[in-house]
Amino acid sequence: MRFDVAAEFRGAHTSRVLAKASRLRELFPAFANKERHRFCHRFESSFRRDAETGTRDECAPRSCASSCFFHLEIYSRGKVAWLLTFLTFAWLACAGAAPSPLSADVTPLTLRPRTHAPAWVTIKLHSQNRTPLDGVLELQAWGDGVLLSRQQIPDVTLIPGNTTQRILLPPPPSARWVEEVRVQFSTRQGVYDLGRFLLANEGFVGRQYVIGVCRPDFVGRESQTLTWRALRPERLADKVRNGMPGLFTSPAYFAPEDLPAPLGLCAFDVVVLEGPALAALSERQLADLATWVEGGGSLCVVAARGLKAEHIAFINRLAASGPQAALFERVDDGALARPAATATPSGAAAAFFFERPGLGRVVIALAPPASEEELMADSWIRVTHFLAHSNSRSPKLGATELSQWASDNSLSQRVEGWLMHSLPHSIRMIPLSVLSMILGTFVLLIGPGEWLVLGWLRRRRWTWFTFPALAVGCTIFTVRAAEYYLGTGDQQLSAVFTDYSSKGVALRENRLEFWFIGRNQDAVTDQRQSLAVPCVIGNDRPMGAQALPVTLPSYQGRVPGHYTLRFPLTQWTPYVQRTLTFTPDPSLPRLRWEAVDGVADLNAAAEPARMVAMKIGARDWNVYAFGRDHGSSVYPARVEKDPLVTELSVDRRLLWPMTFSPGGRSDLLDLALDHGYSDWVVVAERQVGRTIQVQRCVYHFPSDE
Predict the structure, then answer these.
(1) Do 42 and 70 reside in the same domain of the chain?
(2) Do residue 447 and residue 323 come from a single domain?
(3) C-alpha–C-alpha distance, residues 384 and 621, integer Å
(4) Of 191, 205, 279, 336, which sits most exposed with the smallest number of CB within 10 A?
(5) Residue 407 resides in a domain
(6) Full residue range of the structural domain in which residue 258 is found
(7) Distance CA 379, CA 369 (A)
């Protein structure tokens, strides 16, 4: 009787148990096998105990069945899986809703950054952690709707509370400026996305002219805004809608203690020191500012007071490096004054002193403009032209002159071609005859050749194998032909432009690195105290590419101090990288530029280039001498008269301005040298192996400025 109960139970539920056990095995195989063994073991134990005792315990098999069916129901129907999924999503939702322990706020120095130049941003990071966080700060620069570059700064420590970072974004490689930046902070625990921040106003076009205003206080009085407003070039344009088309000026205010290093000053076209700002600078800051000015920057000192001996020495350093060498002295109240014996300006211009140290320009104004009417005075118009590297004094500028602010596509294209043709091993393109032969042979083989041969063999079905084999063979042959003509090795070339003063002092160095590789790889360069950027053709694409780059330059480190620039290269695609530094390589040979007695020797010489070559020791160099009032001269005479290297130094198409302040521009327009109509520009060039050495010097004509 006791076995009848078990038999009845088995008969009623065996099929149901087996079906659910089968489903259980499909969902959870390991657990299904375990439960099935436990189920059978408990039933066998119950039946064996009833047989030995002769009793009938109906609750035992039912409790056993209930327990087993409970587990089978849960796991076979996936209730636990759904429960775990629900809990996981709930936990993620709660984690996402929880406030992040990090937050950031990015403030640009100006909402209209300088065109094709680096830009300063201030990042304030707020940490709510109780312990410091160590990680990598990553900034992604966006412009024109595309990702331009990625900069990673390692070994950044965030203490609890606020941490401020002043970061210089490198020059954009393909856009005019960086419009947006995305900030991330990576630690061992994970990556914190701190958001995207706008750096530039949307909806404006044209060139951005940035004036850096350094002063101790930022009260914002009306008189304090007149100085930078007097230096705006667009106010000289003919009256058109919204002022001058294609050019806009923006001020960027900073305190004297925040004055950047020389490469950081490349974010400005002009730097203005107002009132006691000059007196607040340290000796190190004065040296950095002088380095930038002599390298091509523009400085305006307005109503300086409270000066000390080191500040007078700074002004005299800039004045002594110019053609006049007129020194200044300090009066009782700490202001500047020029001795009467050397004070050349007279009349209304007596309150202004113009200096041209090295490649830069300096204006010293004894007083700021007093009113709006004074902004259009002839003296301030002259100051505006002078600081913009222009030799014009016209109160109005036309559309032809203003159009020269735009980038030039053809210049970058010709630079790429010049470097490619200067490679020690010339690069030959696959001849058209070879390509025609390969294509014709392939057509003959897959057309009549395959038809006739397979027909003669009566094996036309073999075309399923012969056609792919012929296609693969033709492809391999084409690749081998390309490797034969273009080469499989890597070819590199450097063009180094070193600029000197007339006294033989190295002022700055621009290096153009050219790569033409036979295999895909990364171009990795270690940079110290320099601005490096991939060059572009115009505003649209990098040199050699057909569209905006899919690969991006990656800066690992803090620009411009010490960092590594990495750029992925594509096989047989030329790549040019531009590097600007104010500390030229001392290992390169130096010519004796101080041996030439200025423009006096050049004006008196029948062959200026030959005369300069003999004096500076450049007999084995190609020497070019150019003067706007005297024409050009070359040495030796068989050399091309107007090569590209002289066009990079003296761009005759630039009507206003003559050149730009240094900015590490990717379009190379700031390589041109600042010179006047009566000045002489001398360029010496030669190629030694894989290095093209170019040395340049400007001999200024002493004027009444």
Answers:
(1) yes
(2) no
(3) 38
(4) 205
(5) no
(6) 207-398
(7) 10
pTM score, two decimals? 0.78
Asked if residue 505 belongs to a domain, the reply is yes
Please write down the long-range contacts of 318-321, taking CB distance under 8 Å and 24 or more positions apart.
Answer: 318/290, 318/293, 318/294, 318/355, 318/357, 318/362, 319/353, 319/355, 319/357, 319/362, 321/294, 321/357, 321/358, 321/501, 321/503, 321/505
- Asked if 412 and 512 touch (Cβ cutoff 8 Å), the reply is no
Instruction: Measure the CA dihedral 343/349/351/355, to 10°.
Output: -60
Is 425 among the domain residues?
no
pLDDT tens-digit series, residues 21-64: 455 445 444 444 544 455 445 544 554 454 455 444 444 444 44
Q: Give the end of a domain, one of 198, 219, 251.
A: 198
Element (H, E) at 70: helix 59-76
The single residue listed with the structure tokens 């007097």 is 230
Beta bridge partners of 682: 625, 697
Number of domains in the chain: 5
Residues 296 and 343 in one domain: yes
Q: With beta carbons less than 8 A apart as the criterion, state whether 609 and 622 touch.
A: no
Sign of CA dihedral 254, 256, 261, 265: positive
Q: Residue 573: is its pLDDT beyond 70? A: yes
DSSP letter, residue 256: G
For residue 145, how many other CB atoms are within 10 A of its CB? 9
The tokens for 123 are 């990042």
What gap in Å lies between CA 323 and CA 310, rounded to an integer? 22
When pLDDT is averaged across residues 255-272 and rounded to a whole number, the result is 95
The tens digit of pLDDT for each residue in 491-507 reads 889 999 999 999 999 99
269-296: b or e for each residue (b if 16 or more CB lie within 10 Å)?
bbbbbbbbbbbbbeeebbebbbbbbbbb
262 and 115: one domain? no
Non-local (6+) Cβ contacts of 394 within 8 A are 236
* 512 vs 465, more confident: 512
CA distances from 571 to 149, 398, 487, 516 (A): 21, 46, 10, 8
| Closest residue by Cα to residue 121 from 579, 558, 581, 566 | 558
Same domain for 107 and 91, yes or no, is: no
Task: Give me the residue label for tokens 């009066």.
Answer: 331
For the sheet containing 298-302, what is the strand order?
247-254, 207-214, 270-274, 298-302, 361-365, 352-355
* Sequence-distant (≥ 6) Cβ neighbours of residue 80 within 8 angstroms: 74
**Position 411 in a domain:** no
The pLDDT of residue 419 is 86
Distance (Å, whole) CA 560 – CA 558: 6
The DSSP code for 635 is E
Average pLDDT over residues 582-610: 88
Q: Which residues are paired to 526 by β-bridges?
A: 564
CA distance 82 to 221: 67
244 compared with 604, residue with greater pLDDT: 604
Nearest to 192 by CA among 136, 148, 147: 136
Q: Which residues contact 197 (CB under 8 A, 6 or more apart)?
A: 104, 105, 106, 180, 181, 182, 183
- Is the alpha carbon torsion for 215, 217, 223, 225 positive or negative? positive
Q: CA angle, 501 as apex, 497 and 506 as ends, to 5°?
A: 55
Q: Is the pLDDT of residue 228 over 50?
A: yes
